[in-house]
Amino acid sequence: MSSVLVWIVYDIVEDGVRNRVAKQCKKFGLQRVQKSVFLGRLENNRFDELGEICRDMIDEDTDSVYLFPFCQEDFRRINVLGQGFDRKLVNDEILAKFF
Amino acid sequence: MSSVLVWIVYDIVEDGVRNRVAKQCKKFGLQRVQKSVFLGRLENNRFDELGEICRDMIDEDTDSVYLFPFCQEDFRRINVLGQGFDRKLVNDEILAKFF
Q1: Is residue B91 part of a domain?
Q2: Which residues bind Mg(2+) (chains A, B) (predicted)?
Q3: Domain annotation covers residue B26
C-alpha cells in the first residue's frame, strides 16, 4: 500500500464543524501547522477516506475543503510564505520529518 | 523549459496587499477559483518568480501564502469539497482545461 504526502486546507464557517474536521485530521495522524491547515503522510486509501468523512461533516453550501496529495518531489518544492507555519503549533523538528 | 500545475492559497489581512497579490496571480495567467485561491500552469522559473514577488508584497508577520506545485498525476487526485470552486468565478469549461 503506497502512501502520499498531504496538505489539508479548509475554510469552514461554523466553529463546531471546523473543530470536528480538525479533530478528524488529528485522528488521521496529521500535524496542524496553521489555524486551518494540516499536513502529514497518509496511506492512499486513508486520503480518500478522510475526504469522504470531511464531505459528510461540512456544509457544502458555505464551507470549502482542499485535500492536496503530493509526491515527495513536488512536496519539497512547496513554497510557504509568512505565517504559513504557525511557530506555536509546529517547530523545525516536526517539519524536518516532512521536508 | 518544463512547467508545473500550481495552486496558490493565501490568507492576507490587508485589502490592498490581498488585491495586489491577486492581481499578480492574474498577471501570471492563473485562474481565480475562490476568494483567496488561484490555480493554473506556470513555467518552473515563473513559479519561483511568483513566490519571490508575493514574499516582497506581504507582511510576513501576519499573512500566509502557500504556493503548491503539482505534477499532472497528483493534480488529478486533488479533492475539492463544498465551495472549493466558486461557481461565479469558474465553470466546468475552465476547469476542464486543468482536470
Answers
A1: no
A2: 11
A3: yes
Of A48, A64, A74, the CB nearest to B84: A64
Quote the radius of gyration of chain A (alpha carbons, Å).
13
B12 alpha carbon, distance to own chain's centre: 13
pLDDT digits (tens, 9 = 90+) for B19-70: 999 999 999 999 999 999 999 999 999 999 999 999 999 999 999 999 999 9
Average pLDDT in chain A: 93
Question: Cell 523545525 maps to which residue?
Answer: A92
Domain housing B26: 3-80
Residue B11 annotated in ligand binding? yes
The complex scores an ipTM of: 0.91
Spatial distance between the Cα atoms of B20 and B54, rounded to a whole number of angstroms: 9
**HEC assignment per residue over A61-94:** CCCEEEEEEECHHHHHHCEEEECCCCCCCCCHHH
| Alpha carbon of B93: minimum distance to chain A alpha carbons (Å) | 20
> Are B43 and B52 a contacting pair, CB within 8 Å?
no
